[in-house]
């Protein structure tokens, strides 16, 4: 299944990821092919589950802190950090409209 320009534009807006090169589009197509395997699973007569543990009574546990003061160790895992915070990709940045952008698929 090929990725259309409209789908690509929609995914870019949802994920705030730029798929304007062949490598990005190729990775997206591979992910879609992988997920499409779910369509081959026969689910006829299978009722939707509310929980994977629906046959068990699940109780909430107390949230007891057993360890702490490990900020320096945790920040060693950060690819990028500012002061004592992980730096994440910026969110909610409006992308230009499809007509205003160059797309690899056009």
From TrEMBL:
Signal sequence interval, chain numbering: none
Keyword Transferase assigned: yes
Entry keywords, A to Z: Transferase
MF-aspect GO terms: transferase activity
GO terms of biological process kind: glutaminyl-tRNAGln biosynthesis via transamidation; mitochondrial translation; regulation of translational fidelity
Record's GO cellular component terms: glutamyl-tRNA(Gln) amidotransferase complex; mitochondrion
Residues passing through the membrane, by range: none
One Pfam family this sequence matches: GatC
Database matches in InterPro entries: Asp/Glu-ADT_sf_sub_c, GatC
UniProt-listed NCBIfam families: gatC
Xref: PANTHER family: GLUTAMYL-TRNA(GLN) AMIDOTRANSFERASE SUBUNIT C, MITOCHONDRIAL
The protein's name in its UniProt record: GATC amidotransferase
Organism (species): Bucco capensis (collared puffbird)
Annotated gene: Gatc
